[in-house]
Amino acid sequence: DAFLAQWDKNDMRGGAVGVVKDGKLIYKRGYGMANLDYDVPNTTSTRFNLASVSKPFTAMSIALLAQQGKLSLDDDIRKYIPEMPKYDDTITIRHLIHHISGIRDYEALIFFGGQGNDNAHSPKAILNMLARQKNISFKPGSKYQYSNSGYFLLGIIVERVSGKSLRAFAEENIFKPLGMKNTLFFDNRFEVVKNRAAGYRVGPNNSIRVRSSLNDAVGDGGVLTTVEDLYLWVQNYFEPKVGNKELISMMTTPGILNNGEKIDYAFGMWRSEYRGLPVIEHSGNIQSGYRAKIFSFPEQKFTVIALSNNAAIFPGTIVTEIADIYLEGQLKPEAPSPKKPAETLPPAIALSEKEAQRYAGIYAHPESGRVIQLSLKDGKLIENAIFRKEVPVTAISENRLLVVESNGMAELNPAFDKSGKVSEIRIMTKSGKPDIFVPVKPPFDSPQQLSEYAGTYYSEEFDADYKISLKGSNLALQISESLETPLTASYADFFAIPDGQVNLSFIRDDKGKITGFVFNAAGGRDVKGVAFKRR
To answer: Measured between alpha carbons, how far apart are the two ends of the chain, in Å?
Structure first.
């Protein structure tokens, strides 16, 4: 109560919390307001939009259809959605479930198509958008990349296999059998729903803005529910009324990549650890201001549910704080802060200016476009791209260079060709696989050279025009009327926006004339290999 009191005010949008222990809802509370227009408070029977916490319900629908023998998890998705292109590799239902399909996230396609978050998008329009994609971001099963598109497509598969909408199928097969009377897939944004909390975001000058859903698409999101109904859902994992223990076991088993590596994502849930204890969890966040989190400790039969209609409240913080209260004594202490890199450096060797010059150059990671920039300053080797500032380079050996910043460190492992020039630089990643950077030519950055890139470029996959113009001595990329960003030259024919999350790799014909570019985005909106042609 004391922890939640900070949000329990009659002029603040808030949320609701539930705590489940040994099959009982031992704590439940609404806090703050569900509607600021009419001063309606949140309660534990207020309906909130779960956003991505809807995914487990879609996954359960697919699992039930598989258990009934109406589909196989290894079916080609084109068996049910022939509108999707035939790619080089088959994409299966299982790939969609575990986010390992390579299909681009439709929210990223909307954003990079310049349409923004204030436009309505029908399920048909989203499917048409996905059907336009000539490529996928990676080979199915080769890596994990969270994608709302996968669960949107799973919702369509449920409809086409069962002959019912996802809303009707879930109502008949999940919500009604579990007694979840206040839960539904919200697939009609014009519908009036009793006891629904309004969603709120913070606007300019800390103003509060109410947001309505502009999306009828469900599968990746769209469930409206209450804390009390989610208690019934959580119980089904411990004592199944819908499905059986075998189905629950399947739904909580993480996916496996083509190389045999296990990922953390199962059927609409992540498997993880919190302070030494196994956890099953999922979180949700939507532009209309709703956030949600289910945080379950299976061995302790303990779950925290946190729902919010305030985009400034983070349920992830709420569930861990409440878990700390209830599981005190069972959790491992917080790990001590690791030593700073500078405290653990091995002995360095001195490089002469001639030896340091051997490493100087620009090196690029071909897939992501990230660069390493090694150069000399006052006869010393420096790097100025990894930490976005100038950092001295410490040599440990000929094949080990350390770039050390106050709170971070990168180890560069150069390899040399027969002539003694650097042929590549490897940087080890957390996965144990190295990122390989190769030498590239310096960028073209004079105004005369930059003017070659100016023009209008069109992508059929985004169905969008991008305009590139020369402004002073720099290029600017305009995606929409409200979205323009500078472009920085990274190396020859390669540019990135300031945060490095989007890059453009320009293409020339055999006469050296620029004919288009390839668009790549990383981070939370991962989209690879979208071709733009010059108009």
So the answer is: 61
